[in-house]
Amino acid sequence: MILLEVTSPGSSVSLVLFFGTIGMLALTIGLIVFIIFHQRKVIRYQLRLQRMEQDQQKLLLNASIRLQEEERQRIAADLHDDAGPLLATARLYLNENLVNLDKTTQLQSIYNAKQIIDDTIQLIRNISHSLMPPTLKNFGLESAVNDLFQKISGSGSMNASSRFHDYRERLQSENELIIFRIIQELVNNILKHSNASFIHLTQNTSGNKFFIRLHHDGRGITQNDFNKLNKSNVGLGLKNIQSRLKVLHGKIFFEKDMSQTYYKVTIELVKEEDDKLQEQE
Amino acid sequence: MLPYLSTLSAILPIVFFLAFYKRNKKGELWVIFTYTITSFATDLSYKRLVHNLNVPPLYIYTFFSLLEYSLFALFLYKSYKQRSFKNILLLLSLIFYAVALVNLFHNNSDSQSFDSPSASLESILIIVYCIFFLFEQVKDPNIFYIYYIKKFWVVLALLIYFASTLFLFLYAATFEKPELSTYWKINYIFDIIKNLLFVVSFTMKDNKQAYSADTLYNDI
After folding, report:
1. DSSP structural state of residue B104
2. Is the CB of residue B200 less than 8 Å from the CB of residue B155?
3. What is the domain extent for residue A237?
4. CATH code assigned at A232
5. Three-state DSSP state, A51
6. Rg of chain B (C-alpha set)
7. How many of the other CB atoms lie within 10 Å of CB of A225?
8. Contact residues of B toward A, CB < 8 A
9. One domain, residues A117 and A172
10. What pLDDT digit, counting tens, does each position of A50-93 carry?
């Protein structure tokens, strides 16, 4: 009926009304359909992001578990291969005392057993220090890093130096340990892969931010390489760094120096996070 | 037939609102319930007011437009989360009331039976407010499925009704009576659709899925 009225000759107002109404209705339905499809698109995008994040978490968790297992295996190997035979030898020397009644031989075997037990004590101390450096626990991050760098320099393979510009207040001991482990991992990577002749570490703060920068003149990686390695199944150490930084809510940047001569690694932490954690505890 | 169906369709939302009162007591749906009662009552009393009490139709239409706009604007005002949308709504409402009152007092109630300017402005404003509402919902990252929200169906009803009747209201004053009664069918049809969409809103449960990511995978 309405259509007939509209199509009758001389009814321009009716035509406007008819097409206007149809047009408005089409626009409304179009708007609603667009909103629903747009929302679905957004949901799909969010899901993809969520899955990517879950995959990344999984990779980090796997890396962390593998590292833990490797560490356990290393400790087990140290105890089994070094401490075990040493103690067995000491036991043999002490057993000899029961069989051999000659005083000089007995004294000799006791002396040998003592020497071996001293070596074992030293060995266990080394294992313990590798698990938790005493300098870090007692004197803090600055001393532990200096100690580490002195040892590297002492080996003669590389010149390592560090300078802490603003570290009057120590961070929480757990956080210091995490940062130290990250530095250890980075230094290990530089030693293993970069062929660098020097490493220089600097620490400073800016506002509530805490920075640690490492420079070296060898082969390094950039942020793109780091991101790629983080998403792949290789680069266990880097994933470990990433998961440790996640605990501290920190960031890491890998870049090449402006002069294209040095590689620079920057660790950025928020100091307030540390304070808040302390307050919560 | 259509006018009767349109009037009777207004009963449906009232019945369903009361039947599912527990689902509808929270939120702003009571504003829509009040509107459906007012609309039904106006439809019933229109003939009596015009023929028996000689009230000019322009007054009834203007009064109903003001009431209808106020209730829908209140519903949308209460539904907005963003302060800026609320402020825009308040500002535009002042303009609407001014236009409606000027139209009422400056037009001849004997020659003009329908308040075309205020009804058209009402349609435009409610469409704009509905778009604001949808925009706000789409921007909200906590809402995953907009069609699981009860208010969405009310807004859909308003959008469809006012978008479809906008041109009718714009040209209503220029039509002769027989012409107007032909085109007024558009109003009846979309009034029925609007009431049915209100029923959808009143009967559905406020689904938790709209706000949760737990069942996100099920629907895609």
Report:
1. H
2. no
3. 134-280
4. 3.30.565.10
5. helix
6. 18
7. 13
8. 127, 131, 134, 138, 144-147, 156, 159-160, 163-168, 170-171, 174-175, 179, 182-183, 185-186, 213, 216-217, 220
9. no
10. 898 888 888 888 888 888 888 888 888 888 888 888 999 988 88
